[in-house]
## 1
Amino acid sequence: MERETEKYRIEFMSKELEISRSSYYAWHSRPKGRLWNENMYLSQRIRSIYEQKKQRYGSPRITAELRSEGFSCSRNRVARLMRKQGITARARKRFRVLTNSNHKLAVAENLVEMQFNPEKANSLWTTDITYIRTREGWLYLAVVLDLWSRSVISWRADRNMDENLVIKPLEKAIRDRQPGGELILHSDRGSQYASQRLRQILKENNITQSMSSKGNCYDNAPVESFFSTLKRELIYRESYKTREEAKQSLFQYIEVFYNRQRRHSSLGYISPMQFENLNKITPN
């Protein structure tokens, strides 16, 4: 009844629920218990975190955020308080993959075989391309992830989906990370990743190339998962007028939020940069 007082009169609700007004007022005047007060404060913090993270967090990440603030609360309790407020993270949407494997260029063997948990930095990178709609036309995005920390170590957005779209971020990742040991770069069989120029860059930097099996989207699941998260938490919420506006939005999401703030489930609900800093990896 208390939650509905802005919509209905106490007299009306009392009659419909067959509860006397005196009983309601007696209950309302009693001091609230400790649990009630805790839930009220937690609900306020949940709403604040939810809005602060731009409605991107569900109960697991909000729980992790609360625990980092010193609250002792279960995920079930947080989920229940979220339901009472009618708040939820956005559901995933399916999107098309842009792989063009209908070419006669050389393809590499699948060396990863869905083993996506390397034990050290700069031992397994994965890369892929997706697309973003703007009113000017499509904007194509290529990313390079280090699967050790799930960090987006390099990315490029461009109006053209050619080999430069994937080569430029790869070159930047090599400059910034300076990998010195054995490193595998895993991708799909798209023509951009099979180009002679890209293969030459890999050879010059002692990087071994690996490609997904034909027609198996799960062979590059981590980067597909990143794109799914990006689309759900950012792209599907926006309507970009220009490609430049979309690029600025991508920068804020990837560099400011995803790498440095967003809690990653496979990292124990800390961000990729926190994980790298805790493990003494400090990219340029």
## 2
Amino acid sequence: MFGLTRAIRSPSVMMTARLMSSSMHGTTILSIRKGKKVVIIGDGQISLGNTVIKGNAIKVRRLGDSKHPVLAGYAGATADAMSLIDRLEKKIEQYPGQLTRACVELAKLWRTDKYLRRLEALIIVVDDKVSLTLTGNGDVIQSPDGLVAIGSGGSFALSAARAIMGLQDQPGFESLDAEDIAKRSMEVASDICVFTNKSYRIETMENNAE
């Protein structure tokens, strides 16, 4: 699903397959890290089987405080994801400025807790330095290039983002920032994936990654 490395694709593809069998789920989330910005963008569609039950859901959230801001987005069973996001927020408060540690602690709890290990979701979490993906398998996967996507339309959005990033030296593309690339990539995903709509929510923060 993520298309980053072989190790990254395997757990995410299996998890996404499980999520698609859930009764109610959110779909496509994409994160782009470029220049002085890192963004997370998500569509607003919530599906119940093959039926759209909501088109303007907010699946991207800003966590942390003003000193250590964090952006997060989810795909998967909606109630499960929201429960996990709430627990992630507590871990971020417990370990301010240590996003990787906070995510590792959540992943450990997610995998071992009798209740939490039944929750089906995927979460993207980013701060000013790292972009991480969390799964119920206990994985905390750091993106090597700052591009990551999850959900049913994630592969389409990620492919489009990679293609656009590869054209940055071409006329008309060099001026595109992270937000522009994210929106164009989600347009591609929403045109192909029936579980992704064009009601986007986007959150942006300053990028300090080297």
## 3
Amino acid sequence: MIEGEIVVDLKLINKIILKNNGVAKTSEFIKSGMTSTDVAKLCNNGILVRVKHGYYQLASQVEPNEEKIIANLFPDGILCMDTALFHYGYSDRTPLEWTIAFSRTVSRSRLKVDYFNIKPYFIDDKYLNIGVTQAEINGVTLKIYNRERVICDCFKYKNKMDVETFNKAINAYVVDDKKNLGNLSKHAKEMRVYKKVSEIIGVLING
């Protein structure tokens, strides 16, 4: 980047960033006639900041929109477990990391982000898309498992959850007006946790 061209470059950079919803790949800058060296200099000059290897956003975005970054970097990811529990109000613990489901075949190197932590769950493809829906979080539409799939996952990963979080999630679901017991039964059978789910949920609902 030539110092005298910084105003022109800033206009171009803003255009590239805007076109890519706040996070742009190195290749997007190169398409616009810049070089990888230019991108490095923009970072050194405090104009761009690296989100992860090969991905950048404006340094003026003091508080990066994590949801936008996730939508851009991981369009194949599905919010699950702690993140989904918090979204549905089944947990009052603000997650310290984004819990996201991916196919077992995903490249692990893709999942490193510099700004925030991700806890990936690697799911067999036959289970990956069960109960997938969408939710708008901070103005960004993201894939997320529906309530019933999240509850099935609680049973599936019960040994990895603390007892308080598990119990709160199950009890919160039982009193949720938006629960769908038909979907719960369907997903529980698909996820092979039907017996565990029916024993506990059935007692709570009928009790």
## 4
Amino acid sequence: MTGPGTVPGGDPREEMIAHLPSMRAFAVSLSRDPALSDDLVQDAVERAWNNFDKFKPGTNLRAWLFTILRNIYYSGRRKAARESMEKLPEEGAVPAVKPDHDGRLALRDFRQAFDTLNDEQREALILVGASGLSYEEAAQTCDVAVGTIKSRVNRGRRRLTELLGLIEGDKLELTDKPTMAVVFAGRGGPVIS
């Protein structure tokens, strides 16, 4: 299998640096903490470097790196949950509303709405929408069935659409391509100008 993120020949360590920006973006989407995200990426790179003997040449390097990063993040969360009895913020604690100014989708409102999604939906939208992984690659990264990823993307997209007050066919002014990719992952989306 070849495609984006695959290394047809040669040492995959040479290509790893090209994936650092997307790894950091994925880490930020998971942790919502830039400092922690940098640590997650560093840990993932270190773990990948030490385990390149387990990487299968010709497979998707980016998906492999994202899987490592994701596993480190969730392992850390499980460890923190065992060590602390602090509660996570309740889902939906910060409602988002569609901005009234010229119909523009405010990035601040998007972030608030995005943060109300559960971890699985947020992760699926980032992998498929913003990071550009296929459903199959995202499913492999999350170690779930392709249908599960499709369902998470669909439920997350519907929830974001609802929170932001968007309807099918709405004309939006594009704030940024990654935001629009997440909101409309896996479908044609609204008219964007």
